[in-house]
Amino acid sequence: MIPLHYILFVSTGLFFIGMFGLFTRRNMITMLMSVELILNSVNINFVAFNKYLYPEKLAGVFFSLFIIAIAAAEAAVAIAIIINLYRNIRSIDVEAADELKF
Questions:
Q1: Beta-ladder partners of 93
Q2: Residue 101 and residue 84: Cα distance in Å, rounded?
Q3: CA-wise closest residue to 43 among 2, 72, 21
Q4: pTM score of the predicted model
């Protein structure tokens, strides 16, 4: 059995890699991938704490499945927005998207 602090160390690493990517990148696709890394680290935490605190219940697993479904919907909407933005300004750079239109 893997100790809990090993799993939390991996989850913390994923979270901070995602935060670093979110704050340092200006490409919208890489920012979206960074948000997905952050959500995956949260999923790891839910499953790990569920396994170690309440092994007979599946609440953490159900929360993780719900977050995966929400992340899939969020990725679909974000990719649609990025494609629409690329059609209008021919760039997916965040700095280039400084104009809001109706």
A1: 27
A2: 12
A3: 72
A4: 0.81
Cα distance between residue 52 and residue 26, in whole Å: 38
Q: Give me the count of residues in the chain.
A: 102
CA-CA distance, 98 to 24, in Å (whole number)? 18
What SS3 class is residue 38? Answer: helix
The C-alpha atoms of residue 42 and residue 64 are separated, in whole angstroms, by 8
CA-CA distances (angstroms) from residue 91 to 33, 84, 98? 18, 10, 11
- Yes or no: say if 10 and 42 are a contact pair by the CB < 8 Å rule: no
Pairwise CA distance, residues 100 & 98, whole Å: 7
- Residue pair 18/35 in contact (Cβ under 8 Å)? The answer is yes
For residue range 7-61, list pLDDT tens digits in order.
999 999 999 999 999 999 888 888 889 999 999 999 999 899 988 888 888 888 8
Which tokens sit at 62? Answer: 């159900």
User: Which tokens go with 36?
Assistant: 């997905």
